[in-house]
Fold this protein.
Amino acid sequence: MLVFSKKECEEKARTSEWILTNSIGGYSNTTLSCKNTKKEQGLLITELNNKKYLLLSELNEELIIENKIIKPEIESFLFNIYPTINLKHEGIEIIKSVVMPHLHNTVIISYKIYSNKECKIRIKPYVNSRENDKINSELTEYKQAANRNTVVIKPRNIKAAIIIGSDKAEYKEDSAFDGIEYNEEGYYNAKELVYNPGYFEYNIRKGMNKINIICVADHEKKAYETFSNLYSTNERYYENFFNHEISRVRSLIRQTYEYNNLQADYLLPYLIQSTDTFIKRINGTLNIISNYPEGKEDGRDALISLTGLCLTTSKFDDAQKILKYYADNMINGLVPINIKKNGLVENNSVDASLWFIYSVYKYYQYTNNINFIKEHLWEKMRDVIHHYYYGTDHGIKVDLDGLLNVNNTGPMTWMNSSSTIRKGKAVEVNALWYNSLKIMDFFSLKLGDTTLKYYRLAEQVKESFNKKFWNKHEKCLYDAITDKNNDISVRPNQIIVLGLPFRVLEKNREYHILRKVTEELLTPVGLRTLSYKDHRYISRIEKENRKTYYNGVVWGYLLGFYITSYMRLHENTMKARVEMEEKIMKVIKNNLKNNGIGTLSETYEGKIPYNSIGNISSCLTIAEITRAYVENVLRKV
């Protein structure tokens, strides 16, 4: 349980934020004080036609005492599966809890009110009808229809319905537009008018009071159907939504502990709950959401994250669906990065297909299910090697030295900006290429294929890799090489090399690389994307300048590969585990109360105090730290 005192609430009221998701693309996300400070925040964001729409911005509470309007102040906050905000005013205590029912575009807000006097509470909804990454520059027209306890609001600009109801509070129409100011420091400062259709009012008695608010926002027909199924005037009925979410999350945590034979731990339950927020289930299909609030879907991110999201948590059926999805949509040996609504496939990535082969190997390590691999994945794995060897789209082709070369004017690795095109032979790509060949050789033997072609090519790659990527002057790896020059940039891609299953380097060289990465790239929250000693180093993201994402900004997910590399080089000793706990995991535990409460951010500033920037919840960060924590720190060897 993450608990914030009144002082902490005051200090972090606008900077710390919580997020809930519903596994169908929607989410609820706002600050600790429940006041939105970013345009992406809101109590209910719903995915409609592959776009995310902010439909319920806020619910504001007012007490009416002797005809005076009083706003209660936040007293404390806790997060334990869902957020609970404690508000107080002179003998009146309001306990406000929020939950998103699984697989519904719905949010439920429960109020427990302890009062020493009779008074009234007004709960004022503020609605919107825009995409979550935009701001309305003009007033939107709304139409509402109300009865005693419910109201249906229909925005004119989109085909959707927002239905809000209460079990006990009476609804009173009072249409108005109020302003909300968004202020994300250093990026933008904007105001927006949001619609307040009226308010729900309830007469508070002395003693204990309970009321509930439910909001459904969806396509019109679906909204009516969902509201009809979920709404009730029975106050105790709403407890079921909170209890169901508690039971669902605890079940995920329990099965992870049981499968991995782990002892109780403070950090892991939060990681496990967070892993589940990125798995999107719609109409029998399964996809991985890369981050929140952006909410993009990316094939590379999904395949890197598969182990942490699905395998450590023993969701093997989900892992199968994800692997089969990318296998079935492979074209010329390239898995899709993105498949657009019109069917257009984006596959401009040299490493995503290699991460696919890596993920298949990890799947086998966890399940021993060779039959699924043979039936659904093996031929596609062979296709990857074949097309990469003889040449495929985007200038991807194996060179005479066995190394994988890319001849393309655009970025083809995870560092996808104009300043990090990394043309030629990228270091982690060729380590992945080597690992893919070793994995193919491993499965060839398992499946009765006695060919030695994968083994021989892997040996050639290993020899060329050690000969050409080693920077003897800096005692680390070049980031990329071409026939004309070698990129001496000190970047974290070399730690990925050390963290992969099959080692391409001698241990002595691995020690030098780990030392270099530790000295110039390591921070408590992740690895810098460029050494702070480099003249191009930029410590933070400039909002409209994507090249700043990879020239010094810290990415959290790289800690996973660092932990694996460190533990492997120190032979998984108890001393090494204690060091990882003290130097890294303890900081991660503390970080659960910063930025995204109970989750971990995608990127951070490259200098103290390492403030979170960008997406507050990242599937890469959560998945990789979960994987490394379970496999390398918690699990007994």
